[in-house]
Each structure stands twice: as C-alpha cells, then as structure tokens.
From TrEMBL:
Organism from which the protein derives: Homalodisca liturata
GO MF term list: transmembrane transporter activity
Entry keywords, A to Z: Membrane, Transmembrane, Transmembrane helix
Domain of life: Eukaryota
Membrane topology per record: Multi-pass membrane protein
GO cellular component, one term: membrane
TM spans (from-to): 30-49, 61-82, 88-109, 129-151, 157-180, 219-243, 255-278, 285-306, 312-333, 345-367, 379-400
Protein name: Major facilitator superfamily (MFS) profile domain-containing protein
Subcellular localization, as worded in the UniProt entry: Membrane
One Pfam family this sequence matches: MFS_1
InterPro entries found in the cross-reference section: MFS, MFS_trans_sf
Amino acid sequence: LGKPGTPEANCSDPITSRVEDMVQPTTAQIIMGRALLEAFIPSCLTVLIGPWSDANGRTPFMVIALGGMSLAYLCWGFLALLPNLNPFLFLLASLPRSGSGGSWALYMLSYCYVSDVTDERARSFRMSVLTMAIYCSLIFGSALAPVLIAVQHSLNPYPLIFFFSASLLIICTLYTHWYLRESINIDLGGEKAFFKWSHVKDSFLTCFQRRSGHARAMIFLIMASLSINVFISEGEGAVMYLSLREMFSWQLSDFSTFSCFANVTSGLGAFAGVWLFASLLGLSNMLVVVLLFIIRTARSLIFVFARSGLDFYIGAAVATFVSAYSALCRTEISRMVPRPDLGKVFALMSFLESLTPIASTPLYTLVYQLTFLEYPGAVYIFSTALCVVALILATIVFILQRIVRGDCYCPDLTRDSHVQTID
C-alpha cells in the first residue's frame, strides 16, 4: 500500500520510519472507510432481519449473509490481481458484504439460533461455545495468512489469500443452505415482505414495552455495555497494528503472532470463563460480567503503560476470561424476553453494536493520527475510560437484580418446552 502521489524513490525502502510515517495516515483512512461502509448498511438491515426471522426462520438470511461475504472476498481477490490500483478502490469490494448484512447479521442470527435450540440451563454454555468458535476461526486465519504468504514466494501473495477465504465462505454457505435445520416453526401466515416499516416498529415497541422487575431498564443497560465493548474492540482493531508498528517496530509476522496469542487466550477464556465462574463457582451472570469489566479495565491500563511488546502479551493474558462477557450478557437478555420476541430484541442490540464502528473507527483513527508521533499508546487511555463506563452500567444491573431478585426474568417458561434438538 502506498500513498497516492508518493515519489517512487521514497518507496524503495518500505521499512524506514520516514516512509512508514507517510503511509500510515492513508492506511488508517482506508481501514476507517471499510469499517464505516461495513457498519452503516448492516446496522439498518439488522433491524429488519431480526423481526423477519422471528416469523420466517433464521437460516435464509444466514445464507444471504454468508453469500455476500463470499462475494466480497472474491472481489478483493480480483482487485488484488490488478497492478498499480488505487488502494481506495478496494472499498468497493465491501459493498456485497454490506448489502447482505455481513457478519453483524450472521452473528445476530447465530445467537438467535442458539437461543432457539437450548434451554436456560445450557444457554450460556452454548453461547460461550459459539464465541470460542469465532475466536478459533480468528486464530486459524491469523496463523495461516503468514504461511500462505511465505509458501508463495511472490511479490503479491494476497489474491491467493482472498480466494482461499472466499472458498471457505462458499463451503459455509452451501452447508448452511443444505444441511442446517431451521430452528423455529415458520409462521406460514406471517409477514413475508422484508422491507416493511412494521418490522422496525415491532423491534422498537418490543424493546420499549414495560416489563416486570425493571427488566426493560436492565436490557438497555446491558445493551449499552455491550455496545461500549464493541466500540472499544472496533476502535482498537482499526489502529492497534499501526500503533504497535510505531511503538515497537513490529512487522506483520510479529502482529500475527500476537493476534494468535490474544485469540487463543480469548477463545479459551470464553469457554472456561462461563464454566469456571457461572457453573463451578455458581456466581450470577451479572456479577461475573462486573468482574470481567474490571479485568478489561486493567488490560487497557497495561496497554497504556506498555514499554515493550511483552507488556501487550501480559495484557492479553490478564484479559483471558474477558471474552465470556458477551455470552453471559446475551444469556441474561434472553431470560428477560419471551422466545417469540428474541429476534426483535437481538435485532435492536445488533443495530446498536453495528453502529458503533461508525463512531469508534473515525474517533480512534483521529486520536491516533494526532498522537502517534508523540505517544502512539494514547488511544488506550480512551479505552480505559470507556471500560470504566461499561463497568458502572454492569454494576447498576447487578444491583437492580439483587433488589428485584427473580422478578426481572420472563415468567413464560413454556418457551423452553418447544426447544428442538438439533443433531
């Protein structure tokens, strides 16, 4: 990637700090543009997809989302074959992913699917398994990309990587279409049209309706804490590689190794955290979430005061169990909402989460561009402050649950009597 208009002589040594400082702002802008493009359209679609899936099934849009992601990687592969291409044109490849709902729709429907086919006792465990599977895929990708680059002995190894990713997504699309059984009983008399204002209206009315035991307030506080954590993750993801290059002169292989380590610890922590804190120790879900947000705050502080790459490894190790918060928060929300309304509530939650990159990526990018020459780790101070806010919100939910005890949970326990067993 080179900055448009940069003289060729300045690009002869891509590892000099002067060239690095010239390229990084353009790289940050492209990362920001992609994040915005893949956030705005999916955020609007999730509000429609959730209510539609409550009546028409989860799997149709899972197939559509996977198909759009497959097409996006195919486009990236073909664009990577073209020499001397303006790097901003790669943003066009994100359009199929955005128009199909992308990963936001896929994750939302996956969590709805897990909620459909499990009872309350096993739900947090199953959701943690799903979270662990996501991290395992990140580990696989981070570990395999440098290997594919090394074995090609080519100046342009990226087309193979993109085409390989597209082939994996195509396999997932075909498997979902042909072999994944539908998790709900489809309402044959339900609304079949997708672009209907009633879908948006139903989502908001369902989420804002009054519930016993301050459940409505708890749902929105949990949604806010989840959105803040996505805000932090998306923002840091946009600038972490650049900041580590500036702070410790890391190359792609160094960052890939760190990403693998962080994903391994997070993947194991998502599974082991639910088992250790909720199952073995018997702690309530929200108490565990409060403890995990305290740990995440400590992680951000370690990054702020990092003096070597080892400090980032220590921070990732400290935050091993933090990834379990997502499964626990979604489990709590599913216990407060009747099963027929899960898609609507999860849709609004995904809508809020998918909107966060629109604000987080430009904000983190701006902070990084203003500070990377003097203090590349300044962005993690901002992360620390946001972690404290999420911690306060989770603490409020925990206190409210202690006050109302079990009154906040949905009394309609019959929803679990209709759970299907998916082999």
